[in-house]
Design brief:
Blueprint: H1 21-26, E1 32-37, E2 47-53, E3 58-59, E4 62-63, E5 68-78, E6 83-84, E7 89-92, E8 101-114, E9 122-127, E10 130-135, H2 141-155
Antiparallel strand pairs: 1-2, 2-8, 3-8, 4-9, 5-6, 5-7, 5-8, 9-10
Length: 156
Amino acid sequence: MPFMSITDPEFWKICPQGLELIPKSMEGTGGGVAYFVMGDRKEDAPTVVALKMAPNWVLPRHAHDCYRFEVIVQGTLDVGDRILKVGDVMVSEPNTFYGPHIAGPEGCTTFEIFSNHHASHEAMLDIAGIVHKFDVSQPGAFQEMMDAQDNAKKSA
């Protein structure tokens, strides 16, 4: 049984084949992402995603097509009506939008458990009232998602 630590830089390189663009998209942000598939990806197994957000990093309003359980393991996260701290959890049903969420001044690390694998990298964003689907494992999708969010803010 392997033992790992979120303080080990190698931890943030754990990623299934085919999803390597996701951790690469986080390079230079001060954050990171690691993937743990709990079974065979072909069977759409549950997946745990560790997400390390830099201080004040904004996670846009979005939803996933699955059940989701997320726990704060380091730092704080502003979810709008409250500040979540270590040990606090969020739970959402499929297609339930949440966010924007803002990492605290010390950053935030969460473990997000998705009931199916595809939803761990596919998201729907609510940008100015229009739902956009993104698969952040595809080339350019993460940047496209962030650009769409920025453009919506500028036009608001």
